[in-house]
Amino acid sequence: MNELFKALSDENRRKILDLLRNGDLTAGEIANHFEISKPGISQHLSVLKNAELVYAFKKGQYVYYSLNSTVFQDVMKWVIQFNSKGENE
């Protein structure tokens, strides 16, 4: 869970997640939306992959990144549980 919150704490990573909501993208396509070096984008993608927020798959000669919506569903369940426990105390 700590890696998840670490990943979400950065504005650039949140923007990457927002971009991926519209569909799969390569690292180069993602980089086009930022004024960050490609190695910097790669580092952000690595953090997101470690938190299991995105996954990568190879299609032809390119690696595509895709949003892992299952993790978001799990986080929302956790937040709802956490919130409902606080209301019951």
Automatic annotation (TrEMBL):
InterPro entries: ArsR-like_HTH, HTH_ArsR_DNA-bd_dom, HTH_MetalResp_TranReg, SdpR-like_repress, WH-like_DNA-bd_sf, WH_DNA-bd_sf. The keyword Transcription regulation applies. Keywords: DNA-binding, Transcription, Transcription regulation. Pfam families: HTH_5. Residues 1-87 form the HTH arsR-type domain. CDD domains: HTH_ARSR. The keyword Transcription regulation applies. This is Autorepressor SdpR family transcription factor. It comes from Rossellomorea oryzaecorticis.
